[in-house]
Structures
1.
Amino acid sequence: MKNKKKKFAVLKNGRGWLAASGAVFTAMGMSANSACAHGFVGDYFFPPTITTDDPFATDELKLPSVSYFKSPAAGGGPATGTTDVGFEFDKEIFPKFALGISGDYLFQKPDGQQQLTGWDDFVMSAKYQLWQNDPHQAIFSVGALWRIGGSGSSQVGADSASVFTPTIYGGKAFGDLPDSLKYVKPIAVTGTLGVDLPTSAEPNNLQWGIALEYSLPYLQEQVQDIGLPRPFRDMIPLVEFSMSSPLNRGGGQTTGTINPGVLYETKYFQIGAEALIPVNSASGHNVGAIAQLEIFIDDIWPKTFGFPLIGRDN
Amino acid sequence: MKMIKTIPYRLMLAAILFFAIQSQAWAHAFLDHAEPKVGGTVTNSPSVIKIWFTQELEPAFSNIEVRDARGNEVDKRDAHLGDKDKTLLIVSMAQLPDGTYTVNWHVTSVDTHRTQGHFEFTVKAAQK
């Protein structure tokens, strides 16, 4: 879902619009094992990441997600600063399979022009957790995104054509390393890889991204109590790489952002913030920012969320 | 422009405050602190292992086991909650020689969320 959460703007036809970003991942398929909800693989808690999607098919609510990014001038149009206020809701339908929907309301301000506002195209998602290995803290999922063409406002450049993006997701934490490398154990990496299949003549884009994170909660709780006080022991510093690579039709070069930041975990929610650093001049010249609130709806309303609508988790 | 730019951030702040003041105590139970400390070294064999969690636990579905480096269980298999503190899980220990031990725990919080984890500690008698 977060592959469609656009992190930078590219001008088209004199109006600003946001291009999707993505992630690259090397899948690690392993034997299936028992599933845990809420982002757990064995002992390791994979936090919901902000600008790349995690591999879990669980109940999630992100509300709101607020970002600001200034896209470079392109196609004869001016540079455009865009504030994006978004949401995402995912629901586990049957064990390990979830459906989701996300939306972004855009406030676009092209240089020297009036502000434009409106909804971007809505995106629906489906995801299935295919493999999981608890002792090795690894997971692999498959899914697809459907950007619903025509569901947003053309004023902000929402496309009238739909885009389908089959995607693979994966995650690996390193708690299975030997004790001689104990301070490496809290590291985890997740990633996604998808290919845009537009229903128009737009290019096919490879959407790829990686999140590299260091879990201070895992360090404190399962590796070494180093005496970190709260709130620091509840923080997860990370860096995400969110990229889009056109494959054909003169789509241009790879664009994207590198997003260093931190996540803060509480009992009921996670709040995260990242800088959005353009990887090249085609992506932009200014550093943007994003902040997101992830609500742990299965903890707040455990009788309503945290289990599939049909069937039961192991 | 200024009003529009601040509305999203006000929305986020309002959402954070709303969920922060939820009175319900339900949530996943995570390890808060332990005795011996996670990754710690003690000079005397501990008589009990204590783990404090962030939520109250269901005793019937919560357990600790301690194993030595060879995988042998060395606790007394009497895991129980604290008398007055339902976030505290305790297991009694046999006398332990010097060595590194693994504590494996799995708990269910009162709202039925399950979590699990493990950590190591070392017994190393003080050199005379």
2.
Amino acid sequence: MPRVDAERDDIRAKAWVPGLGHLVLGRVGVGVQLIMFTTLVLAVIAWRWDRVVGAFSTPFFDRWLASICLLLVVPLIIRFSRWDVNRILREEDQRYRGKSPWKVALRRFGANRLAVWSIYVIASFYVGALLAPILAPYDPAAIPDVMTNRYLAPSSVHLFGTDEFGRDVFSRALYGARVSLSIGLLAMIIAKSIGTLYGAVAAYFGGIVDGVLMRIVDVWIAFPTFYLMLMLVGVFEANIVVLVLILGFTAWPGTARFIRGEILSLKNQAFTESARAIGLPAHQIIVRHLIPSALSPVLVTAALAVAGMIGAEASLSFLGLGIRPPTPSWGNMVAGGQDNLLNAWWMAFFPGALLTLTLISFSLLADGLRDALDPKALMQKYV
Amino acid sequence: MLKYTLKRLLLSVPLVLGIVTVTFFISHLAPGDPMDMYLEQPRQRQLDPEVIDLLRKKYGLDQPIHIQYVTWVKNIAKGDFGVSFRHRRPVRSMILEAIPYTLQLTILAIILDVLIGLTLGIISAVKQYSALDKTVTVGSLAVYAIPSFWLALMLVMIFSVNLSWFPTSQTRSMDYEYMSALGKLFDRLWHLALPVFVMGVAGAASTARYMRNRLLEVLNEEYIVAARARGFRERTVIVKHALRNALIPIITIYGMSLPFLLGGATVIETIFAWPGMGRLTVGAVAARDYPLIMATTTIAALLTVFGNLLADITYAAVDPRVSYDAPRRR
């Protein structure tokens, strides 16, 4: 039954409160999530009001960023809620609802409960890392009276306990998340970009170019990746930037080989022919037409690659060859707990548990993405 | 068959040359030369410039880079990897001492991997959608994702520190020398238990997943329907018809998993103070002992090439569909 205009305006007005419009429209799931999310954000702002405002009187870029992001979220949620309600109202008018492959994929992904939860976990970790200056209960570097504060067991005062210098493990883990999570993401982007471009160039030009480029990949792949990383870490002094570059530059050849295979099968199809026929230069055909068509499987491997990169960084830092203390990273925090397994198990347990949770979430995410994007699996369910 | 083997062997020669080249040039990417990097560490004593020049001459670092490269390739062909900066010993003998330890670890890990992985994979494919299948699919993903150093530490904490069931590290007990032959074997296995478990269980998780998917694919083939239609027992269909074909690609998977095993061994060996290649490499990287780093990296890569070669040849021997004339494209 079509709605009357007054009813629509009423719903649109209610959408000013995030989630309320959705509830009225019967989209309970989205509505409840929006309300909960908004409440959470407002609660954090209210709880840490002095820090959110106080950040602007400090010279630290990361505090500014955290406060701005947190404050910006509120108008953005309202904007999103109104936009989505309008979309739903518009779609109700239309007889046919389009089923684009992306929409089908999105719906299939949404039906996979583990994958959706993994998104929640990953998102909350990244948000926690971004907001570390606002959320952290203690200064991660502050060393209080060591004798009375060290090796305190987890309690409501110190959620994850304290380490050998009396530093709060929870706060350090929060700041460690920044290092670990951002290195993983950046290194993945570097590796996938190099690999995609490299594989596309090799496949498009073929012949000698392909032969030479792929022999290089063969040699690169022959090295156990972790050995290559170790060697590069030994050559260059490892700080965060160098580590990102090292991880990115060691992990691209797999993608290159994969993309090359995909594009070899695409490059003789009609759409490439026609692009060539209208005289597009090679770099535009590669970037505009070939790479986008081959990209959706890369999305799946990208999620796995982030996990791989985070794991590699953690392993290197654990071995004392990556991020060095006092800068916290999950890997070197576990290493710090290695000698205290008997008297302070929490030092190694919690950072490692967070790391494990992150890696599992990324694997589940990749799994969900593959199931959602795999056209073969699609056929079985929808045809 | 012989022709195929020879061809594959011949094809890996340029690969080996490439590996040797890459290791050489990466180690010379460092600002200055390897000797500078080694000596400029905070822990190193200050040396007289003349002594440094002598050292440089001794290691051949005073030569122009192309001469150094040719010497490096020539020496490797002779099996000579130079002398370690830190230990002042031929790298070759250090690696020869370490390799058996790494092999013990990796071979046992692969055996564990095969036993657990294949069993779970087969059961969960045959009983698809059962409770066990669901546990295996989700559980294998989780186990595979756990970082090995954390898993190792947690197991050490539970089974070595708290329960004292297994040793925390080292390769043998204090009284190893006084044990009988059987006692020595048992002692070694007792020390291997935790590291092998940590390495094997991650591999088993991925094997189980792969085996399950592969077997499910094969079970949908027409010849399986035909076998069932002919009235074979389900057991016969699975073991004799499906499993044989599903197992073949696993060989390649094991060939490809070698680099991951070697990489994983670095962390595990360091945690358990296991004197293998991995710990040697980590120690060398920490001390910037370039001859040793170059050698272990090269050898790890050569082992990987060798593993892939072995897997490909076995594959060709087992699967008659692989043509002996053209190399298989992956």
3.
Amino acid sequence: MPSGRLHLDMKRESKSYIDSLYAVLTAAGLFEGPKYRLSGLTGMAFKFTVHERLLPLSVSAYGEWINEHKPGMDNLGIYTVLDAGRTRHPTFRHYQQDAIKWVKDSIDKGIGIIYWIPEFGVIDGYDEEDRVFFVKDGWSEEPHIVLYDNLGLNFTEFWYCQAVGGKVDIPRELMILESLRLAIYDWDTPYKTLPNTDIASGKLAYDFLIQALQQGGYDEGGAVYILDSYCYSREEIYSYLQEARGLWPEIDEASRLYEQLNGLLPMIRNAMIRTNDSRHVDHSQADALMGYIAAAKQLEDQAVNEFRQISSRYPDPRRSIVPRWGIHTPK
Amino acid sequence: MSNMHRIGWFDQQVRAGQYPNSSLLAKHFEISKRQAARDIEYMEMSLRAPLKYVAKHRGYCYEDEAFVLPHLYLSEEEQKILKYLALRYRNYNYDNAESVKRVADLLSRFEAADNFDGIKLPIFDASPRAIQVMELLSEAITGQKSVHLLYKDEEGERQLHVRPIRFVSRYHADYVAVYSEVDVRPVLLRLDGILQLSIADAAFECEGREAFNHVEQGSKPARAPYLAKIRLSSPLGGNSWRGFTIQAREELVCTVAFYDTDSFLQHLLVAEWEELIAPSWLKHKLHSKCKQIEQRLNETR
């Protein structure tokens, strides 16, 4: 009976999608370099979404995943095939059976699969005899065991599987320019999961965060997770922009603004304390925390304005040409 | 009977020496003080509770501690209703039928012991024809019989000879899935479209027909359990191995279903078994778990 194990090295640090993608791409030789670079080039580092009650799902609910992940993959120049949807759809079983085949094919080729556990993880092996996939979540070395028949089934309503293939080389400057444009889009779009308006993105996400901290009654664990993820991604952005310094004068200025923003992060982290084995926001520091977040919002807004200046100097066919089927992806 | 739960609570409070009064009862159940006073009066007058008001504590106590509240009893009419409901629930054949049938078992405990025959059923707000149709169809499904029915839909009225498979609830309407004499695939008929129905004497063959794979609208497919093949040291009675369902067995080799790996691993650590035949990932997990324990033992030695 055929079986395969790739033993991918996945570690949870950034957003779960980036951690998974990084594990898959580096093992397949499709990406070299630090994780923050991948996070920056795909635009994932710039994604920031907050649920009005600070639920932990905020961190991965940054939009319709296909629409969010595909532009990032396109920017890397990496071929990708992905399938996702809601498991309640009557056709789910057909897509699932098909996915079982292509997931195994990809592992046979030595390339892992990005998979929604939840959150995102990697499928790095299968055993045909037991009819199971081995899934890593990045937290533990022990793999999750997913039966073929349970592929895609989890406690959320969604399933997601993504495979990667070949690669084309895109000039570094173009990649960085496109990533800045993705950042602008994320900053300006208030809601990514319409018609629901309980999760805000970009600039509005800051307001949701401050509002929830002000009103109280939010999810304590979620607040810590959002702030941790926020701090990590701002560090990623800073490292990413530092590398890009010298390309345009505005990027130096944006990098300086993010450096200033990074100066606020230790204070934000200090506003979270540990009691009885769980971390939560220190309520006595809530006012100060809201102040830091408001200051960070100002700085990030200025930085995005720098990105806008860079973007306006170059043509943007991807956004200025409306294809004949309209701006929406055909559904 | 609706005040029995309040009276039960009041009785408990009295016994606990809390000296409850009508205000406390009213507050606890969010009822009016007058209603609460009536409840206490009912206890005193109808249930003959030896209640005594103690002014010092502004509440009641029992003069005679030996008093017990009379058991709840059901009137004959209520028993009939419960019996009918038990019957309806037992014949329920939709999704989650298992749990609904457990409700039927529960209800049947309250049934009177006498025979159901000859009791006039209470009237419910449901079309008697629909109930009758369901009753006959349930019988046909369990007895694997076919039925003749007069069916009406937008295409008009027609006479059909079909074999019912199961009831289906979809888009807020009730359907029955049937095999017709000609089609290979099962079709759905609306229950309220069935005008007349009678059970046929002979059923037609349904061999080789497509199975009725019903996908619930708006519900996720159920997760399949993990299966472990295990050789036991002694044969087991029943269909479960200390709570884990046995799906198949061949002498001492059992296929056991489980959903949570950790609880099953724990079970394997304490239960008696001879050989873990499959799956290999489970063997591996058990192995590494045992290794960890061994390591810990060695460290603490």
4.
Amino acid sequence: MDSNKKLIVTFICCFVIAGVLAIKLNRVQHQVSPTRKLVDNLPVAGSQKLLADIQWMQFIQYIGRQKTLDKSSAANVEKRLNNIIDLDPDFAKVYYDGALVLMNDNPDGALKVLEKGMLHPIIGRNWRLYMLAGHILIQGERANRHAHLPINYNRVKRAALYFKKAMNCADSQNYVVNQWLQAEAFNASETASHLTQLQTMLRLYKKHLTDMQDNENEMSTGIFGKYDTQEFIDKMISEALELRQESENQKGLKALLDEVVLTVFPNQEIDPYTLRPYPAGFRFSPQTGKPLKVHGVCKHCGRVLKGPFCWYDGTDNVAEWNKSKH
Amino acid sequence: MDEVNAIAEGVWGRILRMKILYFLIGCAWLHIILSSQYEALMLKEQKMLMADMSFFLAGLGAVLSVLTLTFDLSKDLRQGTAIAYLSKSVSRTQYIFGKFLGTVWVGVVVTVLIAIGFFMIHNATYGSLPVVMVKAHLLIIISVLPMAAIALFFSTILSEAAAAVLTVATIWMAYSANAISSVSMLYGGIVPDLSLFNMRMEAVHGTQFGWSYIGLAFIWSVVYSVGLVSLSGIFFNKRDLG
């Protein structure tokens, strides 16, 4: 075989093998980086990331030059943000910071940017995106409520949904729960008063209890997701106390507080001042110094019970013990 | 093989002795250092810019290195140096293979120097160096192979200016070749895909990829380069050097 024939055979073999290998490599590359398919396939010699950085710097300088954003500059900001996202969909800062810039002058544009981030397999796990989206949706409706303008309850519902998603993200903060409750309360009533908020909390807590009963055999966390139910109970009692302090004579308040206490602490003696259960044998509230109804003590000698029969004089206290056992 | 090595050494020995080369590498390092100072302009994302800049400059270094081949081969043919070589016991295929190896060595030295500079600057500035950055730079170094093969191919069939322009254009477009990844006969075999060596975005965002990917990319680049060098050999064997 002469030299040229050898070269032709080598050339054909190599190109066939290279073609097969390239397809495999391309597949592996897309497995490693699933967002690669979202990157704008501009003919810029693979420098999309560097271009995104340059456009980010230009964006920051553009924002710095603007005293306020009007309609056209807000649209321009949205366009610039979308360009950066198209060049580098993994640039996490663009979604959140960009939406922060846009949220007052172009809330819908800000939401679009955040929703793009939510679709990202990694950035979409960031609770801040959902928190901000919920905030953007609800802030306009809050302003409408103060100005006695019509409220778009669909947006409030969406906000509550976003806050709920933020709650379920791995590293979210506790105050997300507050935002969620406020959105739920807002959704439940036009006034969104503390009373409505407490009513909403009670409704959600009852739903939580039902969910837990329904899924008794499963490892259900109820509607609060990763949040501890105790935290929610504390929040509800604090809300109830605040409400009582604010408007003691409000119609229906006493019935609501009783219902809250009965639902949260069933079959327990409750300190009427702190709205929380107190231990057996307490005669006065440690917080307020006011007298309490004593429970869990021997009916004969008055000592705190340690079992159904008094440890001191052997009196039968089965009924009292069973009651205080709760 | 001694003849091939001698031709390769002639290429890299001459280019790597140029002081301007090291001045340009120094400029690249300076640029990388400067980009680490863009804290305010990047809203504290300067680390990302610094890495991007190093990848871009290493890629640019690789392109400029392989571009020397288009001028070098034409110069050899014009000045008769090629004929002097070929009149000895060197075949035409050995001659272009030697040129190819010499250019690859130049490209590897340039990209390795830029990468080492970046590693040192990154380590000095941030106190650490993620492995994924090393891997991304390694891919750029490997990409010198197919780039040099492209440059060699155009040098053997065209004049120096046309070869240089077409080499740059092909390398430029080869980074977008994954757009035709579904065309199995064309993609990766005839049309090179340099985006396979572009894991810059992943490295900057800390997305991990295995050594097996780098190994596979290296195999592809060797196979593709051998194929294209063979094709260049076919054309060069038929070329009238007189």
